[in-house]
Amino acid sequence: MLLVGDIHINSKYKDLILTSLRKHLLNSDEENIVFLWDYMYQFVYDKKSLNDLFNFFLELFSLWKKIYILAWNHDWINQTFVFEEVANFVKVIDSFKWFKIFLQPQIEEIEWKKILFLPYNIYLDWEDLFKEFNLDFDKVSIYDSLIKSTHKNERYSWYLNKFLEQLLEKVEVDYIFHHFYFSDEEFVWQKGRFKYKDVAIDGKRFLKSWSRIKFISGHLHQSFWRKNYFCVWSVWATSSLEENQHKFIFKFKNETVKPILLDTNFYLKLEYKNWLKINEKLLKSYFTELLKENLENLRKGDFVVEDININVDKFDIKKWTLIVESQDLSYDDLKLVVESDLFKVLNQIRLKRKPLRHQQIVRLFVESEEKLKESFKSWKELLLEYLRQKYWNDSEKYIDKLRELQIL
User: Fold this and answer.
1) Which of 100, 304, 367, 391 could disulfide-link 395, Cβ–Cβ 3.0 to 4.6 Å?
2) Residue 351 contacts by C-beta under 8 Å, 6 or more apart in sequence?
3) Tens-place pLDDT, residues 256-273
4) Are residues 237 and 382 both part of a single domain?
5) Domain that holds residue 33
6) pLDDT exceeds 70 at position 242
7) Beta carbons of 194 and 181 less than 8 angstroms apart
8) Assigned domain for 350 exists
């Protein structure tokens, strides 16, 4: 089984995305391909790009691949899923029984694993859904306080957690493919904790009480394993916030994960040091070191993660953006510290101010205060010197008056 994360296709990056996916998916011997989430880019409906993406799905299907497509938060226009017309079509055409689009929760068996597909759909009729799964919509739940909230996302979190709570007590599944945050959990690189108002699953309860289940999601654009939670990356870096992150698709087989590195775009952030001369060899070396670190983040969960060997020279650095982090450099200085050839080759070169540490801020404040005192002291001395030179013996009465006024 192959897992493909957030695609976020748009006209600017469409060719880059599809070329990279074609390279790995068309020639794969895997029969099942799961496209997990987010086909639109930042809620922008780019019809031409979406059509090209869907034609790619059909191209894979024509090669006898079994295609699974899930709807997520970026993929709705008003109350319509971007591929909804196709979803209605494949429901009634028997030859498309292995081309599945999920707009509501559904359990499927793939490669002898029972998988709950849990799409993001705020327009669901939850009462009907509970009936469909033989669950009790009116049963008291520990999440009932959420339904009284004035925040619509907290109310959605009530439906979501109540549904999962009852379903998992009744049905055994191996994986849950979803596109939600976990409440009050903080994972590597995550800068904050999400709450139910962000539409979230109860992390403390479900990740621990159902530790036998593997939860697999995207959404964060960061790839890592934490015990029974696996977060899959996006297939390209949608912004510079995804700096130093390699992009993968993943092959699952016999409880083993094989990352497949994609040659899409890459934001490489490098801290500048005075001795550093930035050249292509340095960038490729750092790219390889970062890859080792990113793979280590995948080795902290319940699956075995295979090593991968790459030839970095086969990766196109024209797609890379170099971010030089420094507190002292200016854009003019970049021409001195970055080899001239890189300006011609790289996609972009940017300068980023390095955040000051607490101790540095304190030191700068103290230094500034000392300079201010020195400047003020010098000003007083200059004034005294001026008064004595101009008024000679009379200068003292002026000085006394200034002291009385607390100017001196």
Assistant:
1) 391
2) 323, 324, 326, 329, 330, 331, 334
3) 889 999 998 899 999 988
4) no
5) 2-263
6) yes
7) yes
8) no
Structural domain tally of the chain? 2
Instruction: Give the residue from 25, 10, 11, 12 showing the smallest Cα distance to 251.
Output: 25
Domain boundary among 263, 284, 308: 263
Angstrom distance (rounded) from CA 96 to CA 71: 18
Dist CA 376 CA 388 (whole Å) = 19
The answer to whether residue 56 sits within a structural domain is yes
Given a cut of 80, whether residue 318 has pLDDT beyond it is yes
Q: How many CA atoms lie within 13 A of 214 on its CB side?
A: 18
Q: Does residue 124 lie in a domain region?
A: yes
List all residues 6 or more positions away from 82 whose beta carbon is below 8 Å from its beta carbon.
39, 40, 45, 50, 75, 76
Give the pLDDT band of residue 92 (cuts 50, 70, 90).
very low
pTM over 0.85, yes/no: no
In a domain, 245, yes or no: yes
Q: What is the CATH number of the domain that holds 11?
A: 3.60.21.10
Residue 2: both structure tokens together: 């192959």
Last residue of a domain, one of 263, 280, 303: 263
